Amino acid sequence: MTHDSDPGTRSRLIPMRPRDPHEPGRTASTLELFFDLVFVVAVSISAVELHHALTENHVVDGLLSYALVFFGIWWAWMNFTWFATSFDCDDWLYRLLTIVQMAGVLVLAAGVGPAFEEHSYTVLVLAYVVMRVAMIAQWLRASRGAGAIRRATNIYAGGIAGVQVLWLLVLLLSGPVQGVAIVVLILAEISVPVLAERTGTTPWHPHHITERYGLFTLILLGESLLASANAVIESLHDAEALAPLISISVLALVVTAALWWIYFWPPHHEAITSLGRSLRYGYAHYFIFAAAGAFSAGIEVEIDVLTGQSKLSDVAASFTVTVPIAMFVLGIWWIAIRDNADRVVNVVVPVGALLVLLDPVIPIPFTITAVIMALVVAVLVVRPPVTPAR
């Protein structure tokens, strides 16, 4: 039974207690889906800014800004997602605090431009802190009925609160000192769950949490399909580049479909059977999600090259596509595929990713990329997942 199907929980506060990690039929709620849609606004704007930075040949600067901005988006999304799988009670206060986080990410989206263009992080940090304060309130509320894991919930609340104070202080710094402080605080943020979960593991639902990751991945891959559509639109205004642009559009669709196939090939719930594996799964998705967003930016860069609007060379532009693909595939292979695959699949998938990475040195790189991805999928079709040894 899902909480959002019970009208009685919407008009009053109900105790927030740990949910059953083996609850049958647990699926993503409509609130969680709404939450994801708001976050993808920030992801989309970040991908657009990355595209602009790359096409202007500001590669290192663009990638560093993207990595920082995406961390804020991903970390806020991930913390709420794991909290919700353990404590979602779906009453009005829970919904209100969730909507506050959604408001925070919309403000964060407004700060993406200044972060890329001026290295001004004020709006970004303030919006991030708003989201995290709402999360602190959720953890404090959960601690009242947490029972044996109350210490863990208090560590979450206290740890997050302490780091937010430091984020506000970072705004007083500038230059290299600020950059070092940001790295330190990122490490502090990702340390909080490790410390908290070691005192008492929160009851995550394997099927629910992996469904949440899968749904967010689908939304991110949708950004690549939008870039594919943009190639078609551009082709209607540039007769000289008509054939190459249509080709980019078709190949982007092929690669996006292959990434979807590869991601959903293994049984993801098997990848979070322990605390260590769950941390690996959750943290590695930073690179997988970031790669999915960067892939759409890479397609846009390729469109700019074909229409003469990019300062990148053809080879450099090709890397903006192949690096995200390789990162995405290797990430999924490492956290979910390799433990559920036979020897053939465990050779084909990583080797395929590495071949894609090297494709820019070939005269028709993106075409070869699509062929390699299709071949990897073909192997997955004929060799289904295997049950890992326990």
Automatic annotation (TrEMBL):
UniProt cross-references to InterPro entries, sorted A to Z: Low_temperature_requirement_A (IPR010640)
Signal peptide (residue range): none
Pfam families: LtrA
Keywords: Membrane, Transmembrane, Transmembrane helix
Ranges for region Disordered: 1-24
Domain of life: Bacteria
Residue ranges crossing the lipid bilayer per the database entry: 33-51, 63-85, 92-113, 119-140, 161-188, 213-233, 245-263, 283-303, 315-336, 362-382
Keyword Zinc: no
Name under which the protein is recorded: Low temperature requirement protein LtrA
